[in-house]
Design brief:
- There is one protein chain.
- The chain is mainly alpha-helical.
- Helix content is 82%, strand content 0%.
- It has 16 helices and no strands.
- Helix 1 packs antiparallel against helix 10, helix 2 runs antiparallel to helix 3 and helix 10 runs antiparallel to helix 11.
- It is globular, with a radius of gyration of 21 Å.
Length: 444
C-alpha cells in the first residue's frame, strides 16, 4: 500500500472518530439546553475541564505507549509491544480508581474551583458527580481507542465511536426528554456510552484478530521514563482545551455575566470540533510516522508530515467558512428562544472566534509529529505555549486593544504567536535530517 493510501486509511477514520465524539457532545448540550435550561448548559460547560483532565491523563500515558508499541512493531518485536501495551492498561486502571475516589470525596471543592457560582452550583455538582463515577471508563475507553488504531484497526475505532454516539444520543432523548431526569439524565447517558465503547474495545483485544494482546507483566515502571515525556505534550494539548474553557468562563463571568458563559459554551462545542479534526489527523499519522521511524525511513516521515499539514490547512479553511456562513443557524439550534439582540451578539462572537481555525492545524500537527519522532522537548514547548502560557496573553492583548467584545479573538492571537515558535522548531528539526539517505539512523 502506498504511503498516501496508508495516510488516508488511518487519518480519515481517526478524524471521523473525533467528529463523532464531538458531535454527540454537542447533541448532549442541545438536549440540556432545550430539555432543562440554558443555565444547565452553562453548568455542563463549567464541568468540561474535569472531563478534559480525564482524557488528558489517558493521552499522557497512551500516546507515549502508542509510539513505543509502533516502533517495536516496526522492528518486528511483538513481545515488547505486548508488554508495553499491557502494562499501560493496568497502570491506567489503577490510576482511574484513585481519581474516582478523589473526585467523589472532593466534589464541592472541584465544583467551586471550576467556577460554579450560586446559580450553577447544584447543576454542576449533579452533572459532575455522575460523570466522576464513570472515570475509569472514560480513561480506559480512550486509551484503547488510540491503541486500536495502533493495532491496525482504525475503522473499528470509528465504528465504535459511532455506536457510542448513537447510544449517548438515544439515551439523552430517553433520560432528558421522555423521563425528565434533567441534567442528571444527560450525565447518565454520557457515562453509559463510555461503558459501551470500552466493552467493544476490550472484546477486540481479547479476540483472535488483534495483533496486540494482554500479557502478564512485572510491575516494572522504568518504561515510563520514556512514555511520560512522549505523552506529556498531547496530554497538555487535551487539557489545554479545558484550560481555555476555564479561563474564558472566569473572564466572561466578570466581563459579560452568565450569558457570556452560555455563548462560549456553544462556541467551545464548535471549537472542539475544529480542534478534534486537527487532533484526528495528528493521531492518524502518528503511528505511521513512528513505524517509519522504526524502519529508518526518513522520506516517508517527511511525506506524512507534509500530508498532515496540507490536510489540516484545507480543513481549517473549510471549517472557517462553514461556521461563518451558517453561524446564525448553528446558534439558533442551541438558544433559539433568546432575543434577537442576544442571538446577533452570539453570531458576532462566533465569527470573531473563528479566525483561530486558520492557524490551529499547523500547531497541532507539528506537535504530534514531534511526539511521533521521539522529540518530546519540542512538542512540550508547543503544547505548553498554546495550552497554558499564551492563552491568558492572547485574551489580555485582545481585550486591551479592542475592548471586552474582542475577548473572543484571544485564542486566535495565542495560536498565531504559537505558530511562529512552531515554525522555528520545525525548521530547526528538519534541517538536522538528511532525507536523501533513508538508511542513516534517525537522530534521537
Amino acid at each position: 500500500m502506498s504511503i498516501g493510501k496508508k495516510f488516508l486509511k488511518y487519518a480519515i477514520p481517526s478524524v471521523v472518530s473525533m467528529w463523532v465524539f464531538t458531535i454527540y457532545t454537542m447533541v448532549d448540550g442541545i438536549f440540556v439546553s432545550n430539555g432543562v435550561s440554558e443555565l444547565a448548559l452553562a453548568a455542563v460547560n463549567i464541568s468540561v475541564p474535569f472531563v478534559n483532565v480525564l482524557f488528558g491523563l489517558a493521552l499522557w500515558f497512551t500516546v507515549g505507549t502508542s509510539t513505543l508499541v509502533s516502533v517495536a512493531m516496526g522492528k518486528g518485536d511483538h513481545d515488547e509491544a505486548n508488554r508495553v501495551f499491557s502494562l499501560n492498561f493496568y497502570v491506567l486502571a489503577v490510576l482511574s480508581v484513585i481519581i474516582t475516589l478523589f473526585g467523589m470525596l472532593n466534589l464541592d471543592g472541584i465544583a467551586h474551583f471550576l467556577g460554579a457560582n450560586a446559580e450553577t452550583l447544584d447543576y454542576v455538582k449533579s452533572y459532575l458527580g455522575i460523570l466522576i463515577s464513570f472515570s475509569i471508563f472514560y480513561i480506559l475507553s480512550y486509551c484503547l481507542e488510540v491503541l486500536v488504531k495502533t493495532d491496525g484497526f482504525p475503522v473499528l475505532a470509528t465504528a465504535c465511536m459511532c455506536l457510542g454516539a448513537i447510544t449517548n444520543i438515544g439515551l439523552d432523548y430517553i433520560f432528558v426528554i421522555k423521563l425528565n431526569w434533567g441534567i442528571n439524565g444527560a450525565a447518565w447517558a454520557t457515562g453509559i456510552s463510555q461503558v459501551t465503547s470500552f466493552i467493544i474495545f476490550f472484546i477486540h483485544f481479547m479476540g483472535k484478530k488483534s495483533n496486540l494482546k494482554f500479557v502478564k507483566v512485572k510491575p516494572n515502571l522504568s518504561v515510563y521514563k520514556t512514555i511520560i515525556p512522549l505523552g506529556l505534550p498531547d496530554c497538555i494539548m487535551e487539557v489545554s482545551s479545558g484550560v481555555t474553557v476555564f479561563m474564558y468562563n472566569i473572564v466572561l463571568v466578570k466581563l459579560i455575566g452568565n450569558s457570556g458563559v452560555v455563548i462560549y459554551t456553544i462556541i467551545s462545542y464548535i471549537f472542539n470540533l475544529v480542534l478534534m479534526t486537527m487532533a484526528g489527523i495528528s493521531q492518524g499519522i502518528q503511528p505511521l510516522i513512528s513505524y517509519a521511524l522504526g524502519e529508518n525511513n526518513k522520506k516517508n516521515i517527511k511525506k506524512l508530515y507534509k500530508m498532515g499539514i496540507f490536510s489540516a490547512f484545507v480543513s481549517g479553511v473549510a471549517l472557517f467558512f462553514v461556521f461563518r456562513i451558517f453561524s446564525r443557524g448553528i446558534i439558533n439550534i442551541f438558544i433559539s428562544g433568546e432575543s434577537d439582540e442576544f442571538i446577533s451578539y452570539a453570531v458576532k462572537a462566533l465569527k470573531i472566534f473563528s479566525y483561530c481555525f486558520l492557524v490551529i492545524g499547523f500547531n497541532v500537527i507539528t506537535l504530534g509529529f514531534f511526539t511521533a519522532v521521539k522529540k518530546p522537548k519540542y512538542s512540550f514547548i508547543i503544547s505548553s505555549l498554546r495550552g497554558f502560557i499564551l492563552i491568558p496573553v492572547g485574551i489580555a492583548v485582545a481585550v486591551l486593544i479592542g475592548g471586552k467584545d474582542m475577548v473572543w479573538f484571544g485564542v486566535a492571537v495565542s495560536e498565531l504567536i504559537c505558530a511562529i515558535f512552531t515554525l522555528v522548531l520545525k525548521n530547526k528539526y528538519l534541517k538536522t535530517l538528511d532525507f536523501s539517505n533513508t538508511n542513516n539512523a534517525i537522530l534521537q
